[in-house]
Amino acid sequence: MGKGYPFQLITSVQLFFAVRVVWRMAKGGGGKRLQARETAQATGEQVAVIVPVLNEYTRLAPCLEGLMVQGSEVCEILVVDGGSTDGTQQLVTAYAQRDTRIRLIDASPIPEDWNGKVWGLQTGWKAVVPTTNNWVLIIDADARTKPLLASTLLEHARSAQLDGLSVATQQELGSIGEGLVHPALLTTLVYRFGAPGREFQRVQDVQANGQCFLFRRTALARYDGFASTRFSVSEDVTMARMLVRDGYRVGFYEADDLVSVKMYENWREAWQNWTRSLPLHDHFSGTQTALGWLEILLVQALPLPLLLCLLFLRTRDWRILTANGVLVAMRLGVLVGTARAYPRRPWSYWFSPLCDLLVAMQLGRMALRRKHTWRGRTVIRRGSL
């Protein structure tokens, strides 16, 4: 057995998973992107917006400002508070005096056996007026929406006959550290699921984003709202997978600048908190969680350090060098492609592949962890790997 055998073996496994990743990206190539459109008011369809919050005083105002300028298709805006102590409730009350569609709903205390956000969504679902609303739109408190967001989502959902539709939001970065960590984390979704822009036919292909997710109300009613996701750490994906499993039509799309988010204050928050849900692991995952992690490790993260190691060792096996060189080139191509998710990129964005290996290790560790902490609350994921 030659000295180069370990590298040859690694490269063979890399190529196996690379074929899976390339095929997935090819299928998602040319995906549909939503363009701002107004809803034909003659349809009479309306949407209730649910915004779950907990201590969001410093981030909520831009979200409410954006929702207030949505059209008449938005008939109510339910801000569901899980027990804020920072003035969030007073802020919502002030906005409710400016727009009668805004209602503050107190959802405290959050039961110990519920994911806090899911409890907020479920409480909001129970408060939605069922006789007038055909749709329910979930918006996170850190989302900044443009005036035609709701009408655009409704128009596409109706024309494509969808029951659920979520958006790959544009991301706002605020520091050099975020420019390194956040894009490396985001890229793991591209490698595991491909690019946004399509409707899903299989549960294992599902992507979803709970920062901006539109549901047909009758589809949610089948599950009594969000109760079935009470133990999920990635409730948005779990809900979308349930819908697809049961034959509902669900899509995931980019929507240009119609909605953007500032997810975290710094890179440490992204590292600690986004990696909690980013594995997208739930009771639907099965072996897909492990296979997806291997794709990230072997196809996204390992090629660059492995190529540098081979060059340092002056290996003469051009097959191994070429294979990893191609994978590094593919990673750089994805880096160029994901740039559109970041309207304002710090210079560090272009060096984010240097974080890929650390990101792969962190996601593997978090996928195995059952107990997670978010804003002082412990969430225990149910389901096995």
What does this entry look like structurally?
This protein is α/β, with parallel strands linked by helices and 385 residues long. Helices cover 45% and strands 15% of the residues. The protein folds into 2 domains: 5-29 and 284-380, no CATH class; 41-173 and 195-265, Alpha-Beta Complex (Spore Coat Polysaccharide Biosynthesis Protein SpsA, Chain A), CATH 3.90.550.10. The protein has helices at 5-28, 57-68, 88-98, 116-127, 149-159, 176-193, 217-221, 235-245, 267-277, 288-301, 303-312, 318-338, 356-368; strands spanning 47-53, 74-81, 102-106, 135-139, 143-145, 164-168, 170-171, 198-199, 212-216, 250-254, 259-261, 371-374, 377-380. The longest helix is centred in the first third of the chain and has 24 residues, at 5-28. The radius of gyration is 22 Å and the shape is elongated. The protein starts with a helix and ends in a 5-residue tail after the last strand. The model has no long low-confidence stretch (mean pLDDT 91). Pfam families: Glycos_transf_2.
Q: What amount of the residues lies in strands? A: 15-25%
Query: Main sheet: which strands, in order across?
Result: 3-2-1-4-9-6-10-8
The name of the CATH architecture of the largest domain is Alpha-Beta Complex
Annotation field: number of helices: 13
CATH hierarchy, class of the largest domain = Alpha Beta
CATH topology-level fold name of the largest domain: Spore Coat Polysaccharide Biosynthesis Protein SpsA, Chain A
C-alpha Rg (nearest Å): 22 Å
Helix content: 40-55%
Report the principal-axis shape. Answer: elongated
Q: Could you spell the SSE succession in H and E letters?
A: HEHEHEHEEHEEHEEHHEEHHHHHEE
How far apart are the termini?
35 Å
Mean pLDDT, as a whole number? 91
Structural class: alpha/beta
Total individual domains: 2
Poorly predicted parts: none
The total beta strand count reads: 13
Major beta sheet summary:
8 strands, mixed
CATH superfamily of the largest domain: Spore Coat Polysaccharide Biosynthesis Protein SpsA, Chain A
Pfam families: Glycos_transf_2 (PF00535)
Organism: Ktedonobacter racemifer DSM 44963
InterPro entries: Glyco_trans_2-like, Nucleotide-diphossugar_trans
Protein name: Glycosyl transferase family 2
